[in-house]
Amino acid sequence: MGKGMECSENSQTNMKVIHGEAGYVLEDVPHLTDFLPDLPTFQNPLQFNPAYSVVKQYFVNVDDSVAQKIVVHKDSPRGVHFRRTGPRQKIYFDSDEVHACIVTCGGLCPGLNTVIREIVCGLYHMYGVNKILGIDGGYRGFYAKNTVPLTPKIVDDIHKRGGTILGTSRGGHDTSKIVDSIQDRGINQVYIIGGDGTQKGAAVIFEEIRRRGLKVAVAGIPKTIDNDIPVIDKSFGFDTAVEEAQRAINAAHVEAGSFENGLGVVKLMGRYSGFIAMYATLASRDVDCCLIPESPFYLEGKGGLFEYIEKRLKENGHMVIVIAEGAGLDLLSESFQNTDLKDASGNKLLPDVGLWLSQRIKDYFSGQQKMVINLKHIDPTYMIRAIPGNASDNVYSTLLSHSAVHGAMAGYTGFVVGPVNGRHAMIPFNRITEKQNKVVITDRMWARVLASTNQPSFLNPKDFIEKEEPQTQTQLEDGGKY
To answer: Which pTM value belongs to this model?
Structure first.
């Protein structure tokens, strides 16, 4: 800990917080020595690795940290930081004693196999670890299924395949059984790949491991195709999802442009956050209307969606609408709104807004307007989820995996990894599970989408009252990145 710094612990979150001069705050992650103070240390074998010996200053300083905000004013405090990832000169596991395991949970996402591959290869090639297990079928695989031995040879070309070679599932989290299995198998490094629900489970596993006083490092690699994990710049698989969504949008555009009054409706992922729909729309430039959960819209009346569709069809003769799966849920019937059905992960089962919107459009134009339209509805969800990661996501997944490996070998535990303003950091579990990242519709990126599509803002005049608000801070300071 640097000079002039003091450490405290938040009793509500068990998060270590280090305070420094000029308002510096480090939201730290746990370390094995917090509850096992007499652990021996070892020389990092990377210093003898010919691939890395040519890299100057390869080991990161133990006090290196990454700032959460980079847009500041001259009188701003230094603000919140996270501990930087990377190899440390001293490590807390001897290579021969490491017995690692990897588990994938939740839905599929491009890049899962790349993450698995690079954890295995990182452990083997950088640290000489030979004992690595894959947990078959998600959390329940710890106690209900066989494990899969993983070596660099076995995972050599899995990054070229979609899905996960380990299998996945939702739910199945039984903390005692999972930690019992970890203890019985002699596992001392656990790598957990999954979304916010999975990482909440990982946090509980870590707490139970700490309670039992086990020398086991728990590292999370956050996964969500929706890009709705807070703090980190973006989630792996997102770039691939946006790229693949272009194919569906292009197909809708071709179909719509080939028929009189052609209308293409493309439903994309995004339960509560419309990032894929927003970025796919902006990248495509063929979209006339983008509907996301964060921006309410209405169908009928002046300024509504139906009026806009009619206007665009009369102007251009065709139209493409992109809708995120969680958009417009407030407009669906009460029977849908009141359903309490959930999947095994606890996510509320949503009705299909793409089919609903398509039917409402057909009913409106065949009934009130007596206007013939040719509507095509495209849902590429599982095609997008099932493909392998693209070049960008493969590189990104490699960096995430190596960050997790370096952190675990250095004795850190109870953390997830991810880029914060372009630098990879270790982030406490609670920071990425406390809320979901959402599109800020007062941000410039959403304004760019509206300018690209020329769609109205769909703010209902009955519900919206324009207010003058004082500009006390810039949008970029308050979460906007672009």
So the answer is: 0.90
